Amino acid sequence: MQYKLLSGIKSPVDVKRLNEDQLADLAMEIREALFNRVGKIGGHFGPNLGMVELTIALHYVFDSPRDQFVFDVAHQTYPHKMLTGRAASYIDEEHFQDVCGFTDPRESEHDMFLIGHTSTSVSLASGLVKARDLAGKKGNVIAIIGDGSLSGGEALEALDFAGEMDSNFIIIVNDNEQSIAENHGGLYKNLARLRETAGGYEDNLFRAMGLDYRYVEEGNDIPMLIHALREVKDVDHPIVLHVHTQKGKGYKPAEEDRESWHYAPPFDRESGKPLYSRTGESYASLFADHMIERIRRDKSIVVVTAAVPGAVGLIPEKRNAMGENYVDVGIAEEHATAMCSGIAKNGGKPLFVTNATFAQRIYDQVHQDVSLNKSAVTFHLMSSSIYGMSDSTHVGISAIGMFSNIPGLVYLSPTNREEYMAMLDYSLDQNDHPTVIAVPGTAVKEAQYPVDRDFSKRNKFQICERGEEVAVLALGDFFDIGHETSDYIAKKLGKKVTLINPRFASGVDEELLDELVKDHDTFVTLEDGILDGGFGQKVAAYLGRKGVRVLTYGFKKKFYDRYNVQEVLEACRITPEKIWEDVIMTRR
Amino acid sequence: MQYKLLSGIKSPVDVKRLNEDQLADLAMEIREALFNRVGKIGGHFGPNLGMVELTIALHYVFDSPRDQFVFDVAHQTYPHKMLTGRAASYIDEEHFQDVCGFTDPRESEHDMFLIGHTSTSVSLASGLVKARDLAGKKGNVIAIIGDGSLSGGEALEALDFAGEMDSNFIIIVNDNEQSIAENHGGLYKNLARLRETAGGYEDNLFRAMGLDYRYVEEGNDIPMLIHALREVKDVDHPIVLHVHTQKGKGYKPAEEDRESWHYAPPFDRESGKPLYSRTGESYASLFADHMIERIRRDKSIVVVTAAVPGAVGLIPEKRNAMGENYVDVGIAEEHATAMCSGIAKNGGKPLFVTNATFAQRIYDQVHQDVSLNKSAVTFHLMSSSIYGMSDSTHVGISAIGMFSNIPGLVYLSPTNREEYMAMLDYSLDQNDHPTVIAVPGTAVKEAQYPVDRDFSKRNKFQICERGEEVAVLALGDFFDIGHETSDYIAKKLGKKVTLINPRFASGVDEELLDELVKDHDTFVTLEDGILDGGFGQKVAAYLGRKGVRVLTYGFKKKFYDRYNVQEVLEACRITPEKIWEDVIMTRR
């Protein structure tokens, strides 16, 4: 039986019963299970391969859930899930969907938080410490942070805060020498010096923050880890345990190319090749190629990423082609944003590309450092769409509500390739205002109507079809659904209705709406985002004075999780048939 | 003549012409001018007193604007403004209003950014460096950071990033041993060790971040500062100059009580007493006293602040009364928020109190660390109101749009004292969801209608008066204007109209609205916030299907700056007379 030990582990208590040889065998079985699941359905791979031994040692030494673990980002918790009653979800294909890719308290009492963003573990854990102490309770609180998360402001704030605490708090720095892409920032040089000197280097970041510190070189050696963890168990003050692990441990391709194997699609173990080839054009590839071309002609352009270049199409080959005009700041979104404002102030053309969910970190910087200062920064938002990442921690459908209401910022929603390229160029070439470009979450679409490349007149909507009675305003990548809807309604009504590409999500075309109310009594808005705070509500508020009917379509204000897109669309009535039903109902 | 030298300084060039004795005299004149302005109209005082000599030395050694200064928070730039052509605004009462309290590029080419939030200078300056280098230009870029800003995530991210840069970049750490209130966090212990050892302490935070480092003890000695600055001018790599200054320098009360004199109201120089006594109850004082009382009975409550306790009524006496149940994390809003989630997870009752403008830093943490995790954290937002701080950097009227659209979060807007207290207690006593309490920006008001203390049924609005035709929904501290408006309209119409206290800004009472549309054709919403993304738009979107008229009142989506409240209200038509005009117009 391939999973002789693992299949018998129902809780961490079972780990404690194993002897040293069995623990080594367990590590092998966990790696097999990682191959089994990730090879078939994909997932975070390198981080989990590196965490196998440390996770076993943690559960061997500590007593979860009395002792509380907080795993940063939590994409490295597959081994933890296997040891806390969820091994079947890695062994047995039928149970793959029982677990998500992150810790989740709904799955297990051993998962403290639902976490998917980086750099939060030390803060969250410090709160557990504070409440534990106030209640006079005991037990260890252990934050496990690594994979580039240390450079995030929230983590650094928390380390600084922890430096003043005075009770049990263990911070394990899982140092695998690698962020998601490269590590960036001076502190990673510090970690390297500390590794080279077995923790003895004189300028120690953690000690400088006021924290006690120990170094463990053998981060993939179970007995050594057990020893080291026993030494800090029940410590009476905050301490950092700096553990040197190997990302991708146990699979040569992943050990050698740590960036590519951070997250793996389904793959063949023998060859290391993906099972399904992804070819063809995407908005990410269009973006990368276009920016390389623009940088070739204009050295004032700066493309900025925060540790996730791969997720936005900037594979190493593309980044290298951008040379000095590409900057990866590491996990440091706030810094990236303010730096972009500084670049713009000195005549550069900065563009910050990230996923919408991670852009939630920069609300204040966009508001103050950028928009208040009228800095012409382009925010190139990927996955700001129901078609994007679908874990509740990563869904990007709050983007319109978050950014479109910031004064001075122009939020553009392209509907097709040509318009997307036009918006990108427009944004880079103007000096007046910050721009968000909400990159479509769909495949690349061709323009069905002439593209107006001028966006200098704010909030100027495009009339694609001019009809009467009903007007459909379909924003961004929901334009196609809007088009189908207007066709459907026209057919039902037996007359042409109006179809509009709003282009802007940050305001309404008052002039156009004033004209349309003359021969339209029903307005339909569609947007790929949560309705609250979004585009449709602006239209509804403007038209509220007119006494016409406005039907707004978008998503409910709730946390969507691992959904089927079509089901969500149906539930929100975002289909031509359902919208027609509503139009009929409200006109009665 | 009292300002013999200062009145002759039209630009930094004039500073360079002075000899050593004259520079010392200039420092005295600048202090006089600080007394003159702050004594009469109030302002940041201690930080500016401490910066006098450093500012003179900076302008003596460097060549602004070719050399570029970025002052963090920028509330310590009064001396800088005096030396860059704006001395009259400190000398001459008639010109006091010519300048704002922060750097502002609209005022001078020597001000790089409009800045009022902390911890942004190193990031902004790093962008200036990047663009300078790409353009092949020369000149020094100097970030000046201090007053507790170092502990902010954005600053720490930027220091880490700077540790990898390789061209001229000077970071001056103005170490005045004081945040706004106390300093908090381990790194301030590190600064203390560095001061004690004249920069020789072995674990050096800045070196650990990869930065070069020098220490200057005599931060209020002009010749020593000039020497130190000359040594780093034109440096070819990033360097930290750690300068020890004295907050409040030159005024004994401010040297001794650095917290109280951080920001001073108009005061008498001789006695140090404020010119106008502020007495009486405020929502801040109600809050402090109520929390002390609750903590006395319930040790699971934790009141968290981020460096600005004074601004929210938590003067030292009140904080001390809260003991261990009060935590000031220093400038570290993100950490504060996630820590609160951890406290809630382990059974505590956390409340984070800050100003709305600073809460812009925590959008992602509220969304992910708190709301996604269903942590019952109370966010007690002060100054989320047009009646609050009126500098464009500090206006809090984006709060509704920012927070009310986050899934799972309940946004409460009290209209009077009793309701405020009820909401505070409700929020602390439930375990289901995070809550924002938008504390009224007005003086404390008494309840005019019975207060329903139950907020467990989400989005349940209160009908205060039940009439017909017109319904006025007046949120939070705009309830009184709404009340006046409904009275005015009733009088004009000659019939009773409906007045509603929505209580919740995060949703609409669909049941109630469904009922009201039966005998109302006009709905008026009022809110103390920007309309876009706010409460009224939710109402308008819901009622859009009904074909009734909705008039939404709030502020325009723009950056308001040092405004007269009544003028803003008039411009936005938020008066009973103007609203009545609009009602009449739309009903024609």
TrEMBL record, chains A, B:
Membrane-traversing stretches: none
Name the UniProt record assigns to this protein: 1-deoxy-D-xylulose-5-phosphate synthase
CDD domains: TPP_DXS, TPP_PYR_DXS_TK_like
A Pfam family that the UniProt record links to this protein: Transket_pyr
Alphabetized InterPro entries for the sequence: Dxylulose-5-P_synthase, THDP-binding, Transketo_C/PFOR_II, Transketolase-like_Pyr-bd, Transketolase_C
Species the sequence originates in: Eubacterium cellulosolvens (strain ATCC 43171 / JCM 9499 / 6)
Keywords: Isoprene biosynthesis, Magnesium, Metal-binding, Thiamine biosynthesis, Thiamine pyrophosphate, Transferase
Taxonomic lineage from the root: Bacteria, Bacillati, Bacillota, Clostridia, Eubacteriales
Cellular component, GO, one term: cytosol
Cofactor entry: Mg(2+)
Pathway of action: Metabolic intermediate biosynthesis; 1-deoxy-D-xylulose 5-phosphate biosynthesis; 1-deoxy-D-xylulose 5-phosphate from D-glyceraldehyde 3-phosphate and pyruvate: step 1/1
GO biological process: isopentenyl diphosphate biosynthetic process, methylerythritol 4-phosphate pathway; terpenoid biosynthetic process; thiamine biosynthetic process
The organism's place on the tree of life at top rank: Bacteria
EC number: 2.2.1.7
Residues covered by the Transketolase-like pyrimidine-binding domain: 281-446
Family designation: Belongs to the transketolase family. DXPS subfamily.
Statement: the UniProt record of this protein carries the keyword Nucleus: no
Enzyme class per UniProt: transferase
Molecular function as annotated in GO: 1-deoxy-D-xylulose-5-phosphate synthase activity; metal ion binding
Assembly notes: Homodimer.
Keyword Transferase part of the UniProt annotation: yes
